Amino acid sequence: MMVMLMTLKLNHIELQYTQQELVQLSISVADGSKGYHDILDWIYSHKRDIYEAKAVIDSMEDVKAGRIVDGETAIGNIKNK
User: Comparing 17 with 52, which gets the higher pLDDT?
Assistant: First the structure.
């Protein structure tokens, strides 16, 4: 569990959970009742909304700094990669 939490933190993914929820997940993984997809579901259901808010704020900074292009240009850039 610690490796999972550190990996998420290093990738700027913050979770909101109680210690009891984390212990229950750990026990379920250890006894085999939860697997990979269950862990992903748990991560998605415990993601902090602040992460999404940070993405919006970062995007606003890009707009303010003029680091944006219109949709048609963006699609053209993707196609040319």
Answer: 17
